[in-house]
Design a protein that fits this description.
Structural class: alpha/beta
Distance between the termini: 51 Å
Mean pLDDT: 96
Number of helices: 9
Low-confidence stretches: none
Strand order of the largest sheet: 3-2-1-4-5-6
Largest sheet: 6 strands, parallel
Shape: globular
Radius of gyration: 18 Å
Helix content: 40-55%
Order of helices and strands: EHEHEHEHHEHEEHEHEH
Strand content: 15-25%
Length: 200
């Protein structure tokens, strides 16, 4: 079983980290919201008091953060992941962010000798709780192979989309297709209203 540092225990991150605990991994988590730390500790995880303490000695570091700004800060700051991670640690960012940031952070990680994956998810909170998420993953094939058993503990469909940034590219394409479909459905309902149909 792996020693995992998990940063970002929000609506998605908390159930994802909890599922790693359930499958026997030793997970130390951190979040800026104190109540999230309490919930994670209640679920069997170890609560850290900082990003640095969460990643100390971890073989794998997983992040689930709100946006690219937070990802850059958590990885690239003076006290960030790249400065504090143990040599050889595998880095997996599951945040949904812009492709440019994903590639920039992965490049910085590579320069420091770390393998990094961008692995945004689809499936929402229910999928996170049920461990049925879809992971769209970008990064080196050997890092993907190493990460696959851990991603399997949190999801149902794991797809390697290509090099760094490809996971985020697949996610934004997925989101665009979903948005187009939603617009089509909405227009269909509007037309039905105009034509006097019962929506049911």
């Amino acid at each position: 079983m792996a020693r995992i540092g998990f940063i970002g225990l929000g609506n998605m991150g908390l159930p994802m980290a909890t599922n790693l605990v359930k499958t026997g991994h030793a997970v130390t988590g951190f979040d800026v919201v104190a109540s999230s730390l309490g919930k994670f500790a209640s679920a069997g995880g170890s609560a850290a008091q900082s990003n640095a303490s969460a990643v100390a000695g971890a073989e794998v570091i997983v992040t689930m953060l709100p946006a690219g700004k937070e990802v850059r800060e958590v990885y690239l700051s003076g006290e960030g992941v790249l400065a504090r991670a143990a040599p050889g640690a595998l880095l997996i960012d599951c945040s949904t962010i812009d492709v440019e940031t994903a590639r920039a952070v992965a490049s910085a990680a590579e320069a420091k000798g770390f393998a990094m994956l961008d692995a945004p998810v689809s499936g929402g909170v229910i999928g996170a709780q049920a461990a049925t998420l879809t992971f769209m993953v970008g990064g080196p094939a050997n890092a993907f192979a190493r990460a696959k058993p851990l991603l399997d503990a949190m999801g149902k469909t794991i797809v390697h989309a290509g090099d760094a940034g490809s996971g985020q590219a697949a996610k934004i394409c997925n989101n665009m297709m979903l948005a187009v479909s939603m617009i089509g459905v909405s227009e269909g309902f509007l037309l039905a209203d105009k034509l006097g149909l019962d929506r049911q």
